[in-house]
Amino acid sequence: MAVRKMVYIYNGLGISDISLAMLTSALKRHLDPSFYNVCHISPEDIIEGSWRNKTSLLAVGGGYDLGFIKALTSSGIAQIRDFVVQGGQYLGICAGAYFACEEIEFDRAGPLEVCGQRQLKFFPGVGIGPVYPGFVYNTEKGAVAAPLIYKTLDSILDFKTYFNGGCCFLPNEFSGMRNFRRKESFEVLTNSTHTLHMNSRNISTRCCSQTKDESRQSSACEKKGTDICESSGNQKEERLSEKREKVDEIACSLKAHDGVEVLGYYSGIVGNLPAIVRCDVGRGRAVLSGVHVEYCSHDLDQNDPDLARVLPELQAAQMENKTCFVSLLNHLDLKTV
Q: pTM for the whole thing?
């Protein structure tokens, strides 16, 4: 029998208990146990370095990346970078994704501001967040069932996933998108009915608001000029088609960066900002996600009042979240079940 390779999950200063538990459970559930042994690893062991030769994947979940930096020191971070450059795989989710960007801007100009350069630099740009407002450390007050579009090899997944404080990914030189670095520029699509505004150069989404009286009078928005209203039913495929084109547009733009590919984006935010990226780094690869597709909604606290508003939508999308997470593992060349 072949010796199983190690899949290590960072467990040290900066990691949140719930994120560690969810990530551990997801990896054990979806990775082929005949090939991998899933375990936790301490900052001290990462710094020591002997783990690298026997490891397929290092995963870092949610929490706060200043804790990672303090615990790992520059020596441990260098061990992680060398591991990936020489052929290893890295999975960073939420704080683990911020940590792997060239630069981060978290709550810029706000009370929780954390901004600065980072050492790993797997993503050649800025991790900016929180994409949705309301984040409070160690609570679910900022939890959102965030709409996500994820492109697999043969389909588009359009679903909602758990979000709490995560980032989007913007390359440094995308001057045309730099306005999104100002936190007030994140515009959330809050209604379930949307209008697609189309012209010859761009496709963007915006909210189409209706009062209750207006909804009773008509099930569709008034069509004006080139505005096309989506209602439901037979227009769903058209909406998915346009979103597919937008995914391709962003992906092609980021292809200017060798080895960077957008895998998913925030479809509930104006601008279709990248939510999940894959980055080739030397002989290895990193997958970074601002959302928690690894979370199993049934394992969240069913009695938390802040989760009560998002749990039904997360539970309805559990299968899509599973499919997306398995796809991320496949992007890291891991064998799944």
A: 0.81
